[in-house]
Amino acid sequence: MPDPRGPSSKIELRVLRGHRTATMRAEVAQSSLSLAMGGMMQAVREALDRQGVTGTSAPFARYHAFGETIDFEAGVMVDDPIAPDGEVKPGELPAGPAAIAVHAGPYETLGATYEAMRAWLEASPDYTANGGPWELYLTDPSAEPDPTKWLTEVIFPLKRGS
User: How distant, in Å, are the alpha carbons of 28, 52, 63, 94, 161 from that of 136?
Assistant: First the structure.
Protein backbone atom coordinates (compact mmCIF):
# COMPACT_ATOMS: atom_id res chain seq x y z
CA MET A 1 0.00 0.00 0.00
CA PRO A 2 1.41 3.44 -0.90
CA ASP A 3 2.30 5.92 1.82
CA PRO A 4 -1.10 7.50 2.64
CA ARG A 5 0.55 10.90 2.91
CA GLY A 6 2.50 10.88 -0.36
CA PRO A 7 1.53 12.26 -3.75
CA SER A 8 0.79 8.71 -4.91
CA SER A 9 -1.52 8.20 -1.95
CA LYS A 10 -4.83 6.50 -2.32
CA ILE A 11 -7.51 8.78 -3.64
CA GLU A 12 -10.68 8.46 -1.58
CA LEU A 13 -14.17 9.04 -2.80
CA ARG A 14 -16.24 10.78 -0.11
CA VAL A 15 -19.56 12.57 0.07
CA LEU A 16 -19.04 15.95 1.68
CA ARG A 17 -21.59 18.06 3.47
CA GLY A 18 -21.70 21.70 2.45
CA HIS A 19 -19.93 24.28 4.60
CA ARG A 20 -20.42 27.98 5.18
CA THR A 21 -17.24 29.92 4.56
CA ALA A 22 -15.62 33.28 5.10
CA THR A 23 -13.31 34.04 2.17
CA MET A 24 -11.55 36.68 0.19
CA ARG A 25 -11.20 36.25 -3.59
CA ALA A 26 -8.44 37.56 -5.86
CA GLU A 27 -6.66 37.08 -9.14
CA VAL A 28 -2.88 37.07 -8.76
CA ALA A 29 0.20 36.10 -10.71
CA GLN A 30 1.33 32.58 -9.91
CA SER A 31 4.60 33.98 -8.52
CA SER A 32 2.61 36.07 -6.00
CA LEU A 33 0.26 33.31 -4.81
CA SER A 34 1.92 32.56 -1.47
CA LEU A 35 2.28 36.21 -0.45
CA ALA A 36 -1.28 37.05 -1.55
CA MET A 37 -2.72 34.05 0.28
CA GLY A 38 -1.01 35.04 3.53
CA GLY A 39 -2.47 38.55 3.35
CA MET A 40 -5.91 37.25 2.46
CA MET A 41 -5.93 34.77 5.36
CA GLN A 42 -4.96 37.60 7.71
CA ALA A 43 -7.83 39.75 6.40
CA VAL A 44 -10.29 36.86 6.91
CA ARG A 45 -9.07 36.31 10.51
CA GLU A 46 -9.43 40.03 11.28
CA ALA A 47 -12.96 40.16 9.80
CA LEU A 48 -14.01 37.12 11.85
CA ASP A 49 -12.53 38.68 15.01
CA ARG A 50 -14.52 41.89 14.43
CA GLN A 51 -17.71 39.84 14.07
CA GLY A 52 -17.01 37.47 16.97
CA VAL A 53 -17.12 34.44 14.66
CA THR A 54 -14.74 31.51 15.02
CA GLY A 55 -13.32 29.62 12.06
CA THR A 56 -14.09 25.90 12.30
CA SER A 57 -11.48 24.52 9.90
CA ALA A 58 -7.91 24.79 8.86
CA PRO A 59 -7.34 27.48 6.23
CA PHE A 60 -8.21 26.55 2.66
CA ALA A 61 -7.78 27.88 -0.86
CA ARG A 62 -10.35 27.18 -3.57
CA TYR A 63 -9.22 27.60 -7.16
CA HIS A 64 -11.49 28.92 -9.91
CA ALA A 65 -9.00 29.32 -12.78
CA PHE A 66 -5.32 28.52 -13.37
CA GLY A 67 -3.09 30.23 -15.92
CA GLU A 68 -0.70 33.14 -15.93
CA THR A 69 -2.95 34.50 -13.23
CA ILE A 70 -4.73 32.38 -10.65
CA ASP A 71 -8.30 33.15 -9.65
CA PHE A 72 -8.81 31.81 -6.13
CA GLU A 73 -10.42 32.41 -2.79
CA ALA A 74 -8.78 31.88 0.58
CA GLY A 75 -10.49 31.49 3.91
CA VAL A 76 -11.92 29.17 6.52
CA MET A 77 -15.14 27.28 7.17
CA VAL A 78 -17.51 28.79 9.74
CA ASP A 79 -20.60 27.51 11.54
CA ASP A 80 -22.16 30.93 11.99
CA PRO A 81 -23.06 33.16 9.04
CA ILE A 82 -20.91 36.23 8.55
CA ALA A 83 -21.70 39.65 7.14
CA PRO A 84 -19.59 40.98 4.27
CA ASP A 85 -16.63 42.91 5.68
CA GLY A 86 -14.64 44.79 3.06
CA GLU A 87 -13.35 42.16 0.65
CA VAL A 88 -14.18 39.29 3.01
CA LYS A 89 -17.43 37.67 1.94
CA PRO A 90 -19.67 34.83 3.10
CA GLY A 91 -19.74 31.81 0.82
CA GLU A 92 -19.95 28.06 0.82
CA LEU A 93 -18.13 24.93 -0.17
CA PRO A 94 -20.47 22.58 -2.01
CA ALA A 95 -21.93 19.35 -0.69
CA GLY A 96 -21.63 16.20 -2.76
CA PRO A 97 -19.17 13.62 -3.94
CA ALA A 98 -15.47 14.51 -3.98
CA ALA A 99 -12.16 12.84 -4.73
CA ILE A 100 -9.73 13.52 -1.89
CA ALA A 101 -6.01 12.85 -1.45
CA VAL A 102 -3.62 13.93 1.29
CA HIS A 103 -0.38 15.45 0.05
CA ALA A 104 2.69 15.25 2.28
CA GLY A 105 5.44 17.75 1.71
CA PRO A 106 6.04 21.30 0.61
CA TYR A 107 3.48 23.19 -1.41
CA GLU A 108 5.88 23.31 -4.37
CA THR A 109 5.36 19.56 -4.86
CA LEU A 110 1.54 19.66 -4.86
CA GLY A 111 1.62 19.28 -8.66
CA ALA A 112 2.34 15.55 -8.28
CA THR A 113 -0.84 15.07 -6.25
CA TYR A 114 -2.86 17.08 -8.78
CA GLU A 115 -1.48 14.91 -11.60
CA ALA A 116 -2.43 11.73 -9.71
CA MET A 117 -5.93 13.09 -9.19
CA ARG A 118 -6.31 14.07 -12.86
CA ALA A 119 -5.23 10.56 -13.86
CA TRP A 120 -7.77 9.12 -11.40
CA LEU A 121 -10.51 11.27 -12.93
CA GLU A 122 -9.59 10.16 -16.46
CA ALA A 123 -9.78 6.52 -15.32
CA SER A 124 -13.11 7.02 -13.51
CA PRO A 125 -15.84 7.38 -16.16
CA ASP A 126 -18.58 7.48 -13.50
CA TYR A 127 -17.41 10.94 -12.36
CA THR A 128 -16.35 14.28 -13.78
CA ALA A 129 -15.03 17.39 -12.09
CA ASN A 130 -17.68 19.71 -10.71
CA GLY A 131 -16.06 23.08 -10.20
CA GLY A 132 -12.60 24.04 -9.07
CA PRO A 133 -10.53 22.05 -6.58
CA TRP A 134 -9.59 23.27 -3.16
CA GLU A 135 -6.75 22.64 -0.73
CA LEU A 136 -7.22 22.33 3.02
CA TYR A 137 -3.94 23.16 4.81
CA LEU A 138 -3.86 20.63 7.65
CA THR A 139 -0.43 21.71 8.91
CA ASP A 140 0.29 25.24 10.06
CA PRO A 141 3.76 26.15 8.70
CA SER A 142 4.32 28.51 11.63
CA ALA A 143 3.86 25.57 14.04
CA GLU A 144 5.78 23.04 11.89
CA PRO A 145 8.74 24.65 10.11
CA ASP A 146 9.80 21.42 8.34
CA PRO A 147 7.96 21.43 4.97
CA THR A 148 8.51 17.69 4.54
CA LYS A 149 6.01 17.23 7.40
CA TRP A 150 3.30 19.47 5.99
CA LEU A 151 -0.04 17.82 5.12
CA THR A 152 -2.49 19.29 2.61
CA GLU A 153 -5.80 17.72 1.69
CA VAL A 154 -6.55 18.17 -2.04
CA ILE A 155 -10.26 18.02 -2.83
CA PHE A 156 -11.85 17.71 -6.27
CA PRO A 157 -15.66 18.12 -6.19
CA LEU A 158 -17.35 15.63 -8.53
CA LYS A 159 -20.60 14.94 -10.30
CA ARG A 160 -21.89 11.68 -11.69
CA GLY A 161 -21.64 10.96 -15.40
CA SER A 162 -19.33 12.06 -18.14
Answer: 19, 23, 12, 14, 26
